[in-house]
Amino acid sequence: MPEWKQEVRQRLKDLGLEPTREAEIVEELAQHLEDRYEELLSGGATVEEAARSALRELNDGDLFAEELRRVERRRTDEPAILGSTGRMNMLGGIWQDLRYGLRTMLKNPAFTGVAVLALALGIGANTAIFSVVNSILLRPLPFKEPDRLVTVMHDYPKLNLVAPVSPPGFQDYLARRDVFESGAASSGGSFNLTGEGEPERIQARAVTAGFFETLGVEAAMGRTFLAEEDKPGNEHVIVLSHGLWQRRYGADPKVIGKTITLDGEGYNVVGVMPRDFRFYGQDDAW
Questions:
Q1: Once rounded to an integer, what is the mean pLDDT over residues 239-254?
Q2: DSSP H or E segment with residue 192
């Protein structure tokens, strides 16, 4: 393939152009010739025929004149004011740079692929980090009076251990009405949901009766838990997430009052939570 830039510079040398202007014209015309050369080859021309035809176009004075006029228009010193022709010149320059960048990337597909992959990974990582920071630090918790909510853990420095509160410890904290207005305990896990449809492994959270009350959240349909459902024999009740209700039960309102089976044990459905309710991830039920 001919050295297009060298051919263009040879024809420009007698014009005495400013180096920057000459470089722009060389780049543009060389790319034009290369595109034309590739087009002729794809049309069935031989290498020699395609090169000769492209060089004939290079000898066309109109091609040089048009390129000179276009570069001259782009390099005008008129201020770029909104609504004026200067703004159009500015946009034309941006478009020119974009075209040049795209052509450069197409010439080096391997480098372009690596660059795009690196950008994608960087953007994805930053998006993920921002999502976490936004949800935890910037955006308030989606609960009533979030500034009054705390999570209580036990710290055992001698054992280098931080652990959840034990059941007796939870009862002690709950009795401290001078410190806590209300409280709840929870423990997450996965369960086999069977019955209607195919068996499914879901994420569910065992909670005490005051869980939703403490968070200040109400059910979108049905109800949440009653105080007496903390007592042995009354604890087999369940509240579904909006997602599980839609996915598994087709958003059927008649699911309230039904008995569903988790790990072989029956639980009476008493409520469905709002669509946007989240607590420690993607729990399907409580």
A1: 94
A2: strand 186-194
